[in-house]
Design brief:
Blueprint: E1 4-6, E2 9-11, H1 22-25, E3 29-32, E4 40-43, H2 45-49, H3 51-63, E5 71-75, H4 78-90, E6 93-99, E7 107-114, E8 117-124, E9 133-141, H5 145-156, E10 160-169, H6 175-181, E11 185-191
Parallel strand pairs: 5-6, 5-9, 9-10, 10-11
Antiparallel strand pairs: 1-2, 3-4, 6-8, 7-8
């Protein structure tokens, strides 16, 4: 599993993992106090602007996938970018997980808790055949609320979901650990301290 992280540890073949993805981490901009004071926003748009960095990111994510997948499910909206890019080398389709009310066909949906209230994500009801192997992808894992809801939604559709990949993990917020409790192998390329 070249260049992936488990929790806050970076792994790479033949190394202790230290700094394996520092090149990618350096391409991710940090914006303090966005969207509110005390938050350190990890902005992947600067990684996306660097063609070679984005290519290395996708290559490393693809190399870390365990086994054949039928579909790569991306969570709206930045997850779509990584899901589509990963699907090509994995020879898989792309499944979109969107905010409720954004898809034109018949959908199935899943609610999840927010700090104050709830939200809902949806997918097309016919997007995933029962038994399809699905890799869940997003740019960042923080508290894991949306990702956990996406796993429940995919499983409701009959998908086999055992892996999720993220470019960035914020381990202090516990989302990756929560997904692991749901039986998901969680891999990320870089981890940042704080929120």
């Amino acid at each position: 599993m070249f260049g992936a992280t488990r929790s806050t540890e970076t792994l790479a073949p033949g190394s202790d993992g230290a700094g394996a993805n520092d090149d990618l981490k350096a391409l991710i901009r940090t914006i303090p106090d966005f969207p509110k004071p005390g938050i350190m926003f990890r902005d992947i748009t600067t990684l996306l602007l660097d063609a070679q960095g984005f290519a290395r990111c996708v290559e490393r994510m693809a190399a870390s996938v365990g086994g054949k997948v039928d579909l790569v499910a991306g969570i709206e909206a930045r997850g779509f970018l990584f899901a589509a890019a990963l699907a090509v080398p994995l020879e898989a389709g792309v499944l979109l997980i969107r905010k409720d009310g954004k898809l034109p066909g018949a959908t199935i949906a899943e609610d999840y808790a927010l700090e104050y209230g709830t939200d809902r994500i949806a997918m097309h009801a016919d997007a995933c055949a029962p038994g399809a192997t699905v890799l869940l992808v997003d740019d960042l894992i923080a508290t894991g609320g949306t990702a956990r809801a996406a796993v429940r939604l995919l499983r409701k559709a009959g998908a086999v979901v055992t892996q999720a990949q993220f470019v960035v993990d914020l381990p202090e917020l516990g989302g990756a650990d929560a997904l692991r409790e749901d039986g998901i192998e969680v891999l990320s390329l870089v981890a940042f301290d704080g929120h």
